[in-house]
Amino acid sequence: MRKGDEYLASLRDDREIYLDGSLVPDVTGHPAFAPVARTVAELYDLAADPLTDMTYVAPETSREANRVFAIPRSRDELAARRHAIEIWARHTHGWVGRGPDHVGAFLAGFASCPGAFAAGPRDLAANVSAHYRRLLDESLFVTYAIIPPQFSRAGTAHGWDDEFIQVGVVAERPAGLVVRGAQMLATGAAVADEILVSCIKPLTDQDRDFAVSFLLPLATDGMRLHCRRSYATGATSGYDYPLSSRYDETDALVVFDDVLVPWDRVFVDRDVAGLRRQFFDTGAHVLGNSQAQIRFVAKLRFILGLARKIAAVNETDRIPGVQEKLGELASLASVVESAVLAAEYRAAPDGNGMWRPDPRALYGAMGLQAELYPRVLAIVRDLAGGGVLQLPASVRDMAAPGIRGDLDRYVRSPGVAAEDRVKLFKLVWDAVGSEFAGRHHQYEMFYAGAPFVAKGYAYRNYGYEQAVADVEEFLASYSID
Ligand SMILES: Cc1cc2nc3c(=O)[nH]c(=O)nc-3n(C[C@H](O)[C@H](O)[C@H](O)COP(=O)(O)OP(=O)(O)OC[C@H]3O[C@@H](n4cnc5c(N)ncnc54)[C@H](O)[C@@H]3O)c2cc1C
């Protein structure tokens, strides 16, 4: 199994990453990227530790692989996969959305159904299977950029001013496809091994050139990442910003400047229907998003723990109104956890023998996420009050003898020393109020598509037959007479 150090060493390549006006020479040595790379390295070390029991013998390779990448072929395998994902999610407490297990699950879904990639103008199924085997053998960290850049949402790529704002095929060569344009918003790409580039937004028949799917190493000629502002570099210390300083995954616009994609890395070639087959016929979308919900459960539990501790430290937990707020948080977290378990309980094998988590339960939870997460944050802010601002500017105040006296005397609670109180409330601020927290607010609302998209999945996957039949049966039981 891949070790953390091996992963870090593999990041030292020719990837073209831009931040604050400069090319980043080595992400593992840069303050914006090194912390999250270290966190991912810890995940690899966890998976390699026999005590975590995260490995299995993959039938596709007959070799040991990480269970987070498995194609589940029974309910037990689905549960074992969840346990492995939970181990990683607990390590980051859900604050890393795009660990290697997210897109890895999409690739497992793709590989479960090679036929979906053989049904287009060109049979590309062997590429998908070969790269899945590589994922299993090498424990790759693959991320993705599958959304067109925000240019105009009134139409699709073929109608945009410049033909290639969204990434598309400009030429075909004997060696592969030449692609040009951009795609948003690749989380974790700066510290990933490879990137899956595709489009999940619906396209029209006129968008054929943009209907592609391919996998590239981050160090590919002509591919560049333009990263958003780093929150890790603004974290003055681990005590002041305990989350920003470890888990800032980074997000980036990915630009393709006439990049050659070798044929063996192409999954979908100018095939609009092929994109839908890729994400939805294969079951990749449910498998990938079940990972996301398992991760979300760990995060909600962590935030719930923060809320409970705020109420205990401030001694508000004796107040019935506060208990009600804690109860609402408990309800929200339990609903998501229950949906994850229900999706597993009601899972069933698809035509390819992959056990798919139940889409009704899974998309039901996802459809609520854009309201649920902001509500969770609002309750924690409500409970925290000004405590998240009645704080010294930085850890340096805690170390300054002339200042520390006041802090020890006035910034404490019964039985809780200043150092611990400040530590807790700084963590709370990084979870609900810092720039890192603001990005997480946006992430939970948008990572799987805009809220209207997530609700669309819930609408299409509920299965209204029984509900409508129940109403019709009731309507038939009485009449105007
Ligand atoms: C922090 C973060 C990380 C992300 N990471 C990744 C990643 O790793 N990989 C990746 O591929 N993508 C990623 N995304 C992108 C994400 O997938 C998109 O944000 C998402 O698909 C929504 O697209 P959009 O942002 O362009 O919003 P838009 O589609 O522009 O929608 C924005 C809003 O406009 C309105 N609207 C637009 N169209 C309609 C419509 N047809 N009907 C009704 N209302 C409409 C709605 O109010 C909607 O919420 C990330 C996003 C965020 C915020």
From TrEMBL:
Residues 4-268 form the HpaB/PvcC/4-BUDH N-terminal domain. Coiled coil: none annotated. Pfam families: HpaB, HpaB_N. InterPro entries: Acyl-CoA_Oxase/DH_mid-dom_sf, AcylCo_DH-like_C, AcylCoA_DH/oxidase_NM_dom_sf, HpaB/PvcC/4-BUDH, HpaB/PvcC/4-BUDH_C, HpaB/PvcC/4-BUDH_N. Residues 277-475 form the HpaB/PvcC/4-BUDH C-terminal domain. Keywords: FAD, Flavoprotein, Oxidoreductase. It comes from the Bacteria. This is 4-hydroxyphenylacetate 3-hydroxylase family protein. It comes from Plantactinospora siamensis. The lineage of its organism: Bacteria, Bacillati, Actinomycetota, Actinomycetes, Micromonosporales.
